Amino acid sequence: MTSYPVLDLTPDELLSTTRTVRKRLDLTRDVPIELIKECLQIALQAPSGSNRQAWQWIVVTDAETRARLGQIYRETTEAYLASRASAAKLFADDPERAKVQHRVGDSVAWLGERMGEVPVLVIPCIKAGKTLPAGNQAGLWGSLLPAAWSYALAARARGLGTAWTTLHLEREAEVAELLGVPPGYHQAALIPTAYYTGETFKPAAREPIDSVLHIDRW
Question: Signal peptide location in the record (predicted)?
Fold first, then answer.
């Protein structure tokens, strides 16, 4: 397998600058499948419950399939942005945070229109039976989501941008049929992957640690 250059980032820099990339995804530049496989090879080192490793990964590069998946994503994005849950409508009573949320909403809309043009679409899946278990599902998704995030980190370290999205799951069955996902496997995310424009990324503004930290009890 070809080995690709890795950026000179400390662990803290990697963790704090792996951002959701939408408008800066380079839609014109092909991404080698071997580079995606290298990122996924890193992702497979993530933990999974009882070491089951029940994950499967779909990497979509075919232009027609990406376009069809992009159309589904466009429609689910439009419905999301029109809903009360839209990122653009959050924190409306806080002028400073509202500005940020409006930018997020604009960015979501931009990607919604162009998802099918992103050169690589990655969908992590996990085996869980025909129906998801009732009650607490933390163990199930905890056996996949760390690996999906490891993929994003590995991609960032190799000069790629990603975005973690789930809006397509409103029509998961339709996407499963499009991609030939067998019964019993469930999709966790849709991760568009591409080279990015510009030089680098910086940490995002976050709420102060003391506003979310509880020591010993709530």
Answer: none
